[in-house]
Amino acid sequence: MKGIKDTESMKTLIIIPAYNESENLPRLFEALKETEGDFDIIVINDCSRDNTEAVCKRNNIKVVSLPVNLGIGGAVQTGYRYALYHDYDIAIQLDGDGQHDPKFIPYLIKRIKEGNHLCIGSRFIENEGYQSSKIRRIGIKYFSKLIKFLTGTLITDPTSGYRACSREVIKLFANDYPKDYPEPETVVTVLRNKLKVSEMPVIMNAREGGKSSITNLKGIYYMIKVTLAIMIASISGKSVVGED
Amino acid sequence: MNMSSTLRTTLIIGSILFFVFIINMVRTKKLELKYALIWILTSLSFIIMSIFPETVFMVARLLEVEVAANALFLCIIFLLLLMVFALTVAVSRHADRIKKLVQELALLKAELEDKDKASENKDH
User: What is the largest CA-CA distance in chain B?
Assistant: First the structure.
């Protein structure tokens, strides 16, 4: 583990995966401007069909546009690769759809500086703000219980995509990140690598526009797949960080 | 137990045509040699089986399967399962490679645009 590094000089990157989010991004950029703290922003445009790229450029936000749609996992991982190549100390992942309020960024940064390797913004610690639909809450609770059973650690909001990572986790994610529905699985991977995971209460908004990637029809497939992925992650060995 | 001669002739002609087709695919580089090998072997065994149907009965006796057709089905299904599995492995590997390539390409492109912009600003 890193010793006492000058915490002031820690380079921080905000990773925003975006797929057809041109309507939501300007508001998010405004909010980010108001947010205190020193950080860079990168939008990963996952081959959007709208003018997401143009919106970023107009707002002078750095954007990486994938030539092929890779899905949320592949997009977020591109951000982590960028963080790794540019030697960032902290990476914060934030959805581009307006669900995640940037005002919690300074607190997430603080948690990583305090020695946590992964800090998850959780809706279910103080149970404030948008709590998702009842059926989704049941699903989230189930994943939470499954992870508690397999790793012994209680994660109240394993599906949250609002997360901050340390250098170690950036490296881990840059090399290995699941394709779709990545959040619960990666929490287990990080725990399996004996890294410190903590949660911080955040308030999420109902999505302002666009659609959730998980529709009712896909719900069952999602539950089965993520259950399997969590189980596999909990029996896989420590990730070997390196090229394949 | 003898096959009708028309069926036999059809099978022989069919399997030879199949063999020629596979060879042609390899020749015109439409099929990678690595994957062609299994198809060449398969088509050759079709030719052998159609010219000497006794081989099928021999294999059936060897496997202690009473009906020769069942032995044939068993072998073919086993072979097909193996091939499909190998293909799934290959597809998974390719998907991973493509993902990595796409990511690196996008990052490089963004980097390049940045450099261009920086040098443009210097020129003005």
Answer: 90
Query: In this complex, which of B102, B104, B110 lies closest to A70 when CB atoms are compared?
Result: B102
pTM here is 0.84
When pLDDT is averaged across residues A3-7 and rounded to a whole number, the result is 50
Phi-psi domain of B87 (left: phi exceeds 0; alpha: psi -120 through 50; beta: other): alpha
Domain A10-235 homologous superfamily, CATH: Spore Coat Polysaccharide Biosynthesis Protein SpsA; Chain A (3.90.550.10)
- CB-based contact A77 B107, cutoff 8 Å: no
The ipTM is: 0.85
Residues in chain B with CB shorter than 8 Å from the CB of A82 are: 107
**pLDDT at res. A7:** 53
Distance CA A3, CA A212 (A): 40
Model confidence pLDDT, tens digit, residues B52-88 = 989 999 999 999 999 988 999 999 999 999 999 999 9
Question: Would an 8 Å CB–CB cutoff place A63 in contact with chain B?
Answer: yes
Cβ–Cβ below 8 Å for A68 and B102: yes
Domain positions in chain A: 10-235
Comparing CA positions, the residue from A16, A23, A8 lying closest to residue A208 is A23
